[in-house]
Known about the structure:
The chain is an alpha/beta fold. Helices cover 43% and strands 13% of the residues. It has helices at residues 2-5, 9-18, 34-40, 47-59, 76-93, 119-132, 143-146, 148-154, 172-175, 187-196; strands at residues 23-24, 63-70, 96-103, 138-139, 202-204, 210-213. The mean pLDDT is 91.
Amino acid sequence: MFRKAKVSVEEGMGILKSSGLDSIPGGGAEIFHPDIRQQICADKVDADGWLYIHETAHKLGMHSNATMLFGHIEAYEHRIHHMCRLRELQDKTGGFNTFIPLKFRNGDNDMSHVPETPLLEDLKVYAIARLYLDNFPHIKAYWPMLGRKNAQLSLAFGVDDIDGTIDDTTKIYSMAGAEEQRPSMTTEELVTLIRQARRQPVERDTLYNVVQTF
């Protein structure tokens, strides 16, 4: 977007902020390590570029999220490298709200031959992320990707946010084989799911300000 507008990252983020933007999502991070990134998303901005955009946003007083796509061709060392770079930037800026591990689903894509990780492995990722990224306020499990029951289980493994009342018309994860074929949950359903896990349901806004407690 900035290239098309012929502005720098700093100028572009400044324009967005002055137009009312106060936070940005964390998609596109995938895996930062260049050996893996070159194989799975060579057409995307590299790790330094992704981190620089978020650092610029943080310096302008904006907050952002961070993701990691795991469970494909990466090794444990690549996951740690990814989280280490996020942790270092968070130490510098404090601008990240949450870390969102995203499970690779192998349906109908160019890496369909790669087996998916078992649930136990997924839960370990969340638990390790919560321990290692101790400077991140929140860890989020994206329930349309994991499925409702597995997201509920993740609340016992360091997760404190399972996203909201999504109506995913893009079906990004359902097309890739996720359990939720048309991800959508009402507030009442979410509250029940969280209570069943013996946690306190809290509605929050994009910046994690409390809207109401149930």
